[in-house]
C-alpha cells in the first residue's frame, strides 16, 4: 500500500502528539459484572507510599489538627506526583525537576496546574521523553487531572484500573508504548473523557463495551494492538464521536449496524482486521463521514451505491476484501471523492463512464478484479487525476486518447 493510498491514521485525531486471545464479552453479561467490579476496585483511592494511614492526602473529608483541606489537596498532588515518578526511569531531564526537595510542583517539567488557589494538577505531558517503567496507581490521587499524555515512550505493564477514579479526565493518550493486558472496563468511569488514544501497544482481549457509556467521547484510537472480538455496538450511541480508529487488530464479526449514527462522525478506520458482512447502512448514508477505511478485511456483497453518491466522503478504501457485483454509477452532480480504491476484490462488469463525473478525484485504483470492456474516455477528462491503476483485469480495446494526453502528469498502470 502506498503512503497516499493509506492516508494518515491521525487525519482527524485531536489532542495527540499527532490516539493472547480472549473471547469477547457476551453482550449483556458484562453490564452486571462490570458494575460490581467498578464499585469494588474503585472504592478507595491509592495511598502513595510516602503517606501513612489508609487515605491519601487530598481526599480527607475533615479538617484535623488545624490543617486546611486546601493544603491537604495541594500536598496530596505533590506526593502523588512523586509516587508516580517512583515507578519511572530513564535519562529524561524532565523528571529531574520532580524532586522531593522542590515544593512547588507546578513548576515541574511536564506538569500544568490550575490558576485557582490552591493550585491542582490538571495536566501531565511527558510524551516522547524516553521514559521507561510502569504507570503507578498513585496517579489516581490527582483528582483534578484533565490530561494525561504519556505517548511515545517505553512504558510497560498494564493500565491501572484505578485510573477510572479520574472523573475529570478528558484526554488520555498512552499511545506508542509497550503496554499490555486488557483495557480496563473501569475507564468508563472517566465520564468526562473526550479523547482516548491507546494505539500502538500490545493490548489484548475484547474492547470494553462499557466505553460506550462515555458519552463525551470524540476520538477513539485503539489501532495497532492485539484486540479481539467484535466492535461494541454501544459505540453507535456516542453522539459526539468524530473519529474511530481500530485498524490493525484482530477484530471479527460484523460491523455494528448503528456505528454511523453519529452526525459528528468524520473518520472511520477499521482496516486490517477480520471483519465480515457488509458495510452498515448507517455508514453508507452518513452525511458527515469524510474518510472510510475498510481495507484488508473479509467484507462481502456488493459495493453500496450510496457511497459513490455521497455529499461528504472524500476517501473510500475498500481494497483487499471480497466485494462482488459491478462498480456503482455516479449520479451526484458534484462529488467530493478524491481517493477511491477497490483493488483486490471480485468486482465484475464494465467501468461506468460516470466515474468521469468525479471531478476532484486524485487516485483511482481498480486493479486485480474481473472488469471487462473498454476504458471510458471520460476518465481522461478528470483534470485532477494523478494515479490510475487497472492492471490484472480483463479489459480490452485501446487506451482512450484523453488518457494518452494526460500521461505526462498521470501515473497509469494498465498491465
From TrEMBL:
GO CC terms: membrane
Family recorded in the similarity comment: Belongs to the polygalacturonase-inhibiting protein family.
Positions with biased composition (Basic and acidic residues): 1-13
Keywords: Glycoprotein, Kinase, Leucine-rich repeat, Membrane, Repeat, Serine/threonine-protein kinase, Signal, Transferase, Transmembrane, Transmembrane helix
Broad class of where this protein is predominantly found: other
Single annotated GO MF: protein serine/threonine kinase activity
Protein name: non-specific serine/threonine protein kinase
Pfam families xref list: LRR_1, LRR_8, LRRNT_2
Organism phylogeny: Eukaryota, Viridiplantae, Streptophyta, Embryophyta, Tracheophyta
EC number of this enzyme: 2.7.11.1
Statement: the UniProt record of this protein carries the keyword Protein transport: no
Amino acid at each position: 500500500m502506498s503512503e497516499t493510498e493509506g492516508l494518515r491514521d491521525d487525519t482527524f485525531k485531536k489532542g495527540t502528539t499527532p490516539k493472547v486471545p480472549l473471547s469477547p464479552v457476551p453482550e449483556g453479561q458484562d453490564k452486571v459484572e462490570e458494575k460490581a467490579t467498578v464499585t469494588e476496585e474503585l472504592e478507595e483511592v491509592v495511598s502513595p507510599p510516602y503517606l501513612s494511614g489508609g487515605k491519601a492526602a487530598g481526599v480527607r473529608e475533615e479538617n484535623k489538627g488545624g490543617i486546611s483541606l486546601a493544603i491537604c489537596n495541594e500536598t496530596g498532588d505533590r506526593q502523588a506526583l512523586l509516587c508516580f515518578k517512583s515507578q519511572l526511569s530513564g535519562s529524561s531531564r524532565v523528571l529531574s525537576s520532580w524532586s522531593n526537595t522542590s515544593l512547588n510542583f507546578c513548576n515541574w517539567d511536564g506538569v500544568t496546574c490550575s490558576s485557582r488557589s490552591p493550585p491542582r494538577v490538571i495536566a501531565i505531558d511527558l510524551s516522547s521523553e524516553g521514559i521507561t517503567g510502569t504507570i503507578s496507581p498513585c496517579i489516581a490521587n490527582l483528582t483534578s487531572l484533565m490530561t494525561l499524555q504519556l505517548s511515545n515512550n517505553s512504558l510497560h505493564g498494564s493500565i491501572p484500573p484505578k485510573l477510572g477514579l479520574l472523573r475529570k479526565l478528558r484526554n488520555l493518550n498512552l499511545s506508542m508504548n509497550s503496554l499490555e493486558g486488557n483495557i480496563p472496563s473501569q475507564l468508563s468511569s472517566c465520564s468526562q473523557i473526550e479523547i482516548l488514544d491507546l494505539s500502538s501497544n500490545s493490548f489484548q482481549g475484547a474492547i470494553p463495551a462499557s466505553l460506550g457509556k462515555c458519552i463525551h467521547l470524540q476520538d477513539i484510537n485503539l489501532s495497532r494492538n492485539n484486540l479481539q472480538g467484535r466492535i461494541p455496538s454501544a459505540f453507535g450511541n456516542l453522539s459526539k464521536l468524530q473519529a474511530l480508529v481500530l485498524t490493525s487488530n484482530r477484530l471479527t464479526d460484523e460491523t455494528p449496524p448503528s456505528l454511523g449514527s453519529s452526525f459528528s462522525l468524520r473518520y472511520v478506520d477499521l482496516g486490517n482486521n477480520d471483519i465480515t458482512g457488509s458495510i452498515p447502512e448507517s455508514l453508507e448514508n452518513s452525511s458527515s463521514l469524510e474518510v472510510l477505511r475498510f481495507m484488508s478485511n473479509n467484507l462481502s456483497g456488493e459495493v453500496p451505491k450510496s457511497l459513490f453518491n455521497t455529499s461528504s466522503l472524500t476517501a473510500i478504501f475498500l481494497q483487499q476484501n471480497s466485494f462482488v457485483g459491478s462498480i456503482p454509477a455516479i449520479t451526484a452532480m458534484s462529488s467530493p471523492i478524491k481517493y477511491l480504491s477497490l483493488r483486490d476484490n471480485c468486482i465484475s462488469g464494465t467501468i461506468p463512464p460516470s466515474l468521469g463525473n468525479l471531478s476532484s478525484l486524485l487516485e483511482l485504483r481498480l486493479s486485480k478484479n474481473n472488469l471487462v470492456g473498454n476504458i471510458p474516455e471520460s476518465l481522461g477528462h478528470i483534470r485532477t487525476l494523478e494515479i490510475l491503476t487497472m492492471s490484472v483485469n480483463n479489459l480490452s480495446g485501446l487506451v482512450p486518447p484523453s488518457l494518452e494526453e494526460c500521461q505526462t502528469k498521470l501515473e497509469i498502470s494498465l498491465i
